[in-house]
Amino acid sequence: MKILHTSDWHLGQSFMGKSRLEEHRLFVAWLANIVEQHHIKAVILAGDVFDTSTPPSYARELYHECVLKLHALNCQFIVVAGNHDSVSVLNESKSLLRTLDTYVVTQPEWAALDNAVIPLRDEQNTLQAMVCAIPFLRARDMVRYEAGQAGDEKQQLLSHQIQHYYRTLFSEAKRLSGDVPIIGTGHFTVLGGQKTESVRDIYVGTLEAFPPSKLPEFDYLALGHIHKPMSVGGNHCWRYSGSPMPMSFDEASSQKSVCVFDTETRDVERIEVPAFRELRSMKGSRDQLIYEIEQLPCSEHLTVWLEITVTEDINLGPFQEQLRQITEHKKIDVVKVRREKRLVDLVDGLAETATLEDVTPVEVFDKLLLEKDVSEERSVELRGLFQQIIMDDEEPNS
Prior knowledge:
- By secondary structure, the protein is an alpha/beta fold.
- It has helices at about 20-35, 55-70, 85-90, 95-100, 140, 150-175, 285-295, 315-325, 360-370, 375-395; strands spanning about 1-5, 15, 20, 40-45, 75-80, 100-105, 115-120, 125-130, 180-185, 220-225, 230, 235-240, 255-260, 265-270, 280-285, 305-310, 330-340.
- It has a 6-stranded mixed beta sheet. The protein has a 6-stranded mixed beta sheet with strand order 7-8-9-10-12-11.
- The two termini are about 35 Å apart.
- This is Nuclease SbcCD subunit D.
- InterPro entries: Calcineurin-like_PHP, DNA_Repair-Maintenance_Comp, Metallo-depent_PP-like, Mre11_N, SbcD, SbcD_C.
């Protein structure tokens, strides 16, 4: 049996005010073709189905269209929630989708392990693999902290509980599997994962990344959250599939892909996802940028989106009007224009003032810790608490 692993679709994403619906439609159509051509019998979506906890109706419709396409191809579909996903939104169609061979897991299933340990069978009803379907594990679902607990105690408790849950599901799958492969899923940062600017850091308590050595010996581990395709823990079969399309300009140069695990050979093949839309970053002086944009060839596909960084201290208003005139009859949209700036220096105030888009809350907090001369040990604890505040503020409501 061939099992396709993908993640981080972020359906409904608004990219600097631009809808990505057409790109996502093209991806879903491409995915259905790959499933048919490569005789894929199961697809695992390892989190972040949607971009926000309140996805627009067209994003939900596309999700359900994908379910129908896969069902028509006799392909099972396993969906686990990511940190961007709302538990309640995914749960609202969970029971209905089960009738279409789609299994949705949004929270840890301590009391009903059979809801999270999913058998995959071929057309002859022969067991081919067991899947431990594990979503993004929120701290509130895993541990009960006591008042006065130190940050490192919370970290150790959470780490222990995550390890315990993984091993509990693995043991159950092992009991039922015989000698077929056991596949795990996860949506978090495993030590060694490389993040991009569009990846929202997941800090639960003060747990920044989970050591791969604490995970069971899965035959394949389907991970989500990191948008770059990569293996982890030195294991070719433990992988981040990466997102199917660039979620930010710094991902535009990275080749996107999905992974296919073969239960017979127990090997992994990467299949490249075509770039449905070009995202291009350009940097230089005003005259240089004008010339380069004028020379850009016309796109044969979707409109090209440009990020422009001007290395001169100019008035952006007239420059943006120039850009509008140049691109008016081209399939080009300039979605971001900015002047080059240095990072804000909160310590000595020597750097020029930056806008809020130039820095993240974490960078500001780190500068404040430095300014106040906070010890390294205390900084680690405070940084973890600050990350928890950010996570609580951004976390989708269940």
